[in-house]
Task: structure prediction
Amino acid sequence: MARVRKVTLIEPRPPGYHVYSLFPLPRLGLPIMGAILKNRGIDVSIYCQDFHPIDYDDVLSSDLVGISTTTSTAPEAYRIAERIKQAGIPVVFGGPHVTFAADEAVEHGDYCVRGEGEYTLTELIDAIDEGAGDLRSIKGLSFKSGGEVIHNEDRGRVTDLDALPFPDISLIKGSERISISPIITSRGCPYDCSFCSVTGMFGRACRYRSIDSVVEEMLTREQKMTFFYDDNFVMDPRRTKALLELMISKGADKPWSAQIRADTVRDRELIKLFQKSNCWVVYIGFESADEETLKEYNKRETVEEMAEAVCILHEHGIIVHGMFVIGAENDTTQSIRKSVNFAMKHQIDTVQFMALTPLPGTAYYHELERQDRLLTRDWQLYDGHHVVYQPRDISPYELQREAFRAMKCFYSIRECIRMLIGPDSFRFFAKLNLNLLRGKWKRARWEIERRVRRWAYSAYGHILIRRVEAANREWTQALAKVPQRIRETLKTTPGKAEDNA
Ligand code: B12
Ligand code: SF4
Result:
């Protein structure tokens, strides 16, 4: 094959509706790899289907096509690949799904890159340039040779994140529609929540970019807001503080949001800096308001810490998006409703109640597969909105119904009205008047904007959850036919390594 001159990278659209449908965002792997290839003189473009449909005339003139996968987008990735392969163009997969399902991926494409892809992809392109002779020495690569699937040895993770170029989001077709600037400052997470695939993919050792590089990248972006993609933005509070101070001093303090853990909020100095640097919303994985379920998830947090976090964040004018995962082994209808009540009692601003999803690469996946409790391997249903396994103490149908019930309860018309004219509204107007009296115009404007947004999200949540439910009707009906309870007495609990040993 001739030299690789043109590469197209594709992020397939997620199936159906999901809680983020209104705010499409690209993952950053493709824009980082796109920047690397562009720097090597390769003609690169990225199709992120959420922003632009795939132009096959363009794609089919590529020398190599790279497709990114999460579990729920894998079936679409494979469909796209079939079409490209028919035209004789080699396809390489990567991403958090195929990393743990490389055997499956190579049935649909030529190559599969496991784990972080930057160096593996460039080595693959070098090998293709040289006639694809020496594939076996490329760490992290899987491929088929003479009918046999070869998995080369794993590649270590990228150690120096500053050595990578900034993700070039302008390579994404339709990038002008990206309304929030996506920035990632670290990789890896020291925790090990049993439902999460981040640690399997990016490891438990945290790797950080330098704060200068982060702020430099932020200053190149035109969007009016920033979303930090880090799995846990406060892995090292000292570094986070230094980053926020630098953002303020360099004028990179556009309104920002990030994912954090509830227990980090206890550091008041940090939260004051959050406020000062224009943090407007934080995404917190509370997961459950049931202590036993928290233990099962290996969350290492208490319900008390969660409640305290919401209170402190609200005192500082920061919106809280609460993320809950329902369907643990311990979960019953009562424990699930406890989480819903917690969210309403503490006036969490927006929420998502996702059904526990055994993603490949997680402890839950291995254990539920071992116990033959996966109801389907139709990956597009692995989006957190479909129950895809047999829970222990309630039926899959009940769990599916509870997931919708939880969201509908939170995003009810009553709650929307309460937000407009309830006691919280009086607090808002009192605070607003105080800011106006003190001449704090910027703060007052910000408070109004925040309030309007919060209400708009609630109204949106109300509509969205009904759409998701309608789209899922067929699956919910199918679940109604699955036996009510699992009969065998389970001796082990997925996700609890010590029990399973
Ligand atoms: C930003 C983000 C989002 C955004 C944007 C999502 C999107 N466009 O898919 C939002 C907030 C909308 C979101 C929503 C959801 N997300 Co999300 N999200 C992330 C997050 C935090 C960062 C993504 C990112 O940019 N990572 C950094 C870059 C560098 O990594 P990367 O893109 O994966 O690329 C690297 C490798 O994967 C590989 N690679 C990737 N693609 C390719 C392609 C080729 C050809 C090659 C060679 C290599 C390669 O090389 C890259 C460079 O090292 C990740 C966690 C994480 N740390 O990655 C979760 C993550 C991707 N999300 C996840 C999930 C489950 C969801 C939700 C289903 C659930 C939810 N929490 O609501 C929804 C689904 C929505 C949807 N779009 O489908 C899972 C996916 C796991 C899986 N197996 O499917 C992750 C991994 C987190 C987790 N808990 O495990 N998410
Ligand atoms: S859920 Fe969050 S805290 Fe837990 S392992 Fe995943 S990224 Fe880390």
